[in-house]
Amino acid sequence: MQSSKTRVRITLESRQDDEVSVHTYTGDWAVRNRAAFLLYEEAEDDRKLRTTVRWDEELRELKITRRGDVETEHHFVQGARRRGEYRLTGSRLLMETETDYLAMATDAGAESALELPMTIEWKYRLWMSEEPVGYFQLRLHIQEVIES
Protein backbone atom coordinates (compact mmCIF):
# COMPACT_ATOMS: atom_id res chain seq x y z
CA MET A 1 0.00 0.00 0.00
CA GLN A 2 1.33 3.46 -0.90
CA SER A 3 2.10 5.82 1.95
CA SER A 4 3.92 8.64 0.18
CA LYS A 5 2.72 10.95 -2.57
CA THR A 6 3.03 9.95 -6.20
CA ARG A 7 3.08 12.54 -9.00
CA VAL A 8 0.20 11.89 -11.42
CA ARG A 9 -1.35 13.13 -14.65
CA ILE A 10 -5.11 13.59 -14.51
CA THR A 11 -7.54 13.66 -17.43
CA LEU A 12 -11.04 14.82 -16.56
CA GLU A 13 -13.78 14.46 -19.16
CA SER A 14 -17.10 16.12 -18.39
CA ARG A 15 -20.28 15.75 -20.42
CA GLN A 16 -23.54 17.67 -20.01
CA ASP A 17 -26.14 17.27 -22.74
CA ASP A 18 -24.18 17.60 -26.02
CA GLU A 19 -21.35 19.61 -24.44
CA VAL A 20 -18.09 17.80 -23.73
CA SER A 21 -15.01 19.28 -22.08
CA VAL A 22 -11.68 17.61 -21.41
CA HIS A 23 -9.08 19.02 -19.01
CA THR A 24 -5.67 17.70 -18.01
CA TYR A 25 -3.88 18.46 -14.76
CA THR A 26 -0.84 17.33 -12.82
CA GLY A 27 -1.28 16.50 -9.18
CA ASP A 28 -0.40 14.25 -6.26
CA TRP A 29 -1.81 10.84 -5.34
CA ALA A 30 -1.68 9.13 -1.96
CA VAL A 31 -3.35 6.10 -0.37
CA ARG A 32 -4.14 5.93 3.34
CA ASN A 33 -6.06 3.06 4.92
CA ARG A 34 -8.68 2.07 2.27
CA ALA A 35 -9.00 5.53 0.72
CA ALA A 36 -7.18 7.21 -2.17
CA PHE A 37 -6.57 10.96 -2.28
CA LEU A 38 -5.94 13.02 -5.39
CA LEU A 39 -4.83 16.66 -4.99
CA TYR A 40 -4.44 19.15 -7.84
CA GLU A 41 -4.98 22.79 -8.79
CA GLU A 42 -7.49 24.04 -11.34
CA ALA A 43 -7.30 27.47 -12.97
CA GLU A 44 -10.79 28.83 -13.68
CA ASP A 45 -11.54 32.41 -14.81
CA ASP A 46 -8.24 33.75 -13.38
CA ARG A 47 -8.96 31.95 -10.10
CA LYS A 48 -7.08 29.01 -8.72
CA LEU A 49 -8.93 26.23 -6.97
CA ARG A 50 -7.29 23.53 -4.87
CA THR A 51 -9.17 20.32 -5.57
CA THR A 52 -9.17 17.19 -3.43
CA VAL A 53 -10.76 13.98 -4.69
CA ARG A 54 -11.23 11.20 -2.14
CA TRP A 55 -12.22 7.70 -3.23
CA ASP A 56 -13.23 5.48 -0.30
CA GLU A 57 -12.94 1.89 -1.52
CA GLU A 58 -14.78 0.36 1.43
CA LEU A 59 -17.77 2.75 1.30
CA ARG A 60 -17.66 3.05 -2.53
CA GLU A 61 -17.98 6.81 -2.05
CA LEU A 62 -16.46 9.69 -4.02
CA LYS A 63 -16.02 13.09 -2.37
CA ILE A 64 -14.76 16.16 -4.24
CA THR A 65 -13.80 19.33 -2.37
CA ARG A 66 -12.66 22.58 -3.99
CA ARG A 67 -11.10 25.44 -2.04
CA GLY A 68 -10.28 28.93 -3.29
CA ASP A 69 -12.40 31.90 -4.34
CA VAL A 70 -15.18 29.36 -4.90
CA GLU A 71 -15.65 26.54 -2.40
CA THR A 72 -17.66 23.43 -3.18
CA GLU A 73 -18.21 20.03 -1.65
CA HIS A 74 -19.82 17.15 -3.59
CA HIS A 75 -20.56 13.61 -2.38
CA PHE A 76 -21.33 10.75 -4.77
CA VAL A 77 -22.71 7.33 -3.79
CA GLN A 78 -24.39 5.16 -6.41
CA GLY A 79 -28.16 5.04 -5.95
CA ALA A 80 -28.14 7.80 -3.32
CA ARG A 81 -28.89 11.50 -3.05
CA ARG A 82 -26.29 13.44 -1.04
CA ARG A 83 -26.06 17.02 0.19
CA GLY A 84 -23.17 19.35 -0.48
CA GLU A 85 -22.61 23.07 -0.69
CA TYR A 86 -21.37 25.89 -2.88
CA ARG A 87 -19.83 29.03 -1.33
CA LEU A 88 -18.79 32.20 -3.11
CA THR A 89 -17.94 35.52 -1.43
CA GLY A 90 -20.34 35.30 1.50
CA SER A 91 -23.06 33.41 -0.37
CA ARG A 92 -23.86 29.80 0.46
CA LEU A 93 -26.09 27.55 -1.64
CA LEU A 94 -27.08 24.01 -0.83
CA MET A 95 -26.38 21.45 -3.54
CA GLU A 96 -27.60 17.91 -3.89
CA THR A 97 -26.31 15.16 -6.14
CA GLU A 98 -28.27 12.04 -7.09
CA THR A 99 -25.80 9.51 -8.46
CA ASP A 100 -27.09 6.98 -11.00
CA TYR A 101 -23.74 5.37 -11.70
CA LEU A 102 -20.38 5.26 -9.90
CA ALA A 103 -17.57 2.86 -10.81
CA MET A 104 -13.82 2.62 -10.33
CA ALA A 105 -11.51 0.46 -12.44
CA THR A 106 -7.76 -0.23 -12.46
CA ASP A 107 -5.65 -2.06 -15.03
CA ALA A 108 -6.25 -5.81 -15.28
CA GLY A 109 -2.86 -6.58 -13.73
CA ALA A 110 -3.38 -4.39 -10.66
CA GLU A 111 -2.63 -6.05 -7.33
CA SER A 112 -4.81 -3.62 -5.38
CA ALA A 113 -8.11 -1.84 -6.06
CA LEU A 114 -6.34 1.44 -5.27
CA GLU A 115 -3.45 0.97 -7.69
CA LEU A 116 -2.62 3.27 -10.61
CA PRO A 117 -3.58 3.75 -13.35
CA MET A 118 -7.18 4.21 -12.20
CA THR A 119 -10.37 5.45 -13.84
CA ILE A 120 -13.43 6.65 -11.95
CA GLU A 121 -16.67 7.26 -13.81
CA TRP A 122 -19.89 8.70 -12.44
CA LYS A 123 -23.23 10.07 -13.66
CA TYR A 124 -25.43 12.31 -11.57
CA ARG A 125 -28.21 14.88 -11.41
CA LEU A 126 -27.39 18.17 -9.71
CA TRP A 127 -29.72 20.47 -7.79
CA MET A 128 -28.79 23.89 -6.38
CA SER A 129 -31.19 25.39 -3.83
CA GLU A 130 -33.68 22.67 -4.81
CA GLU A 131 -33.66 23.75 -8.49
CA PRO A 132 -32.49 21.19 -11.11
CA VAL A 133 -29.25 22.23 -12.82
CA GLY A 134 -28.60 19.28 -15.13
CA TYR A 135 -27.38 15.77 -15.68
CA PHE A 136 -23.61 15.24 -15.74
CA GLN A 137 -21.37 12.37 -16.83
CA LEU A 138 -17.74 12.45 -15.72
CA ARG A 139 -14.69 10.29 -16.31
CA LEU A 140 -11.52 10.83 -14.29
CA HIS A 141 -8.39 8.98 -15.42
CA ILE A 142 -5.32 9.04 -13.14
CA GLN A 143 -1.89 7.73 -14.11
CA GLU A 144 1.56 8.00 -12.62
CA VAL A 145 3.96 10.50 -14.21
CA ILE A 146 7.11 8.66 -15.20
CA GLU A 147 10.13 10.94 -14.79
CA SER A 148 12.82 10.46 -17.43
Structural summary, described in words:
The chain has 148 residues and is mainly β. It has one domain: Calycin beta-barrel core domain (Lipocalin). The protein has strands at residues 6-16, 19-32, 35-44, 47-56, 61-68, 70-77, 81-88, 91-106, 118-128, 131-144. It has a 10-stranded antiparallel beta barrel. Strand 6 (70-77) and strand 7 form a beta hairpin. The radius of gyration is 15 Å and the shape is globular. The two termini are 24 Å apart.
Helix and strand string, N-terminal first? EEEEEEEEEE
Q: Could you report the average pLDDT, rounded to the nearest whole number?
A: 91
Assign the CATH class: Mainly Beta
Distance between the termini: 24 Å
Short key terms for the protein model shown above:
Lipocalin, about 0% helix, single chain, 10 strands, about 150 residues, mainly beta, globular, 10-stranded antiparallel barrel
Strands, helices and their partners?
Elements lengths: L5 E11 L2 E14 L2 E10 L2 E10 L4 E8 L1 E8 L3 E8 L2 E16 L11 E11 L2 E14 L4
Antiparallel strand pairs: 1-2, 1-10, 2-3, 3-4, 4-5, 5-6, 6-7, 7-8, 8-9, 9-10
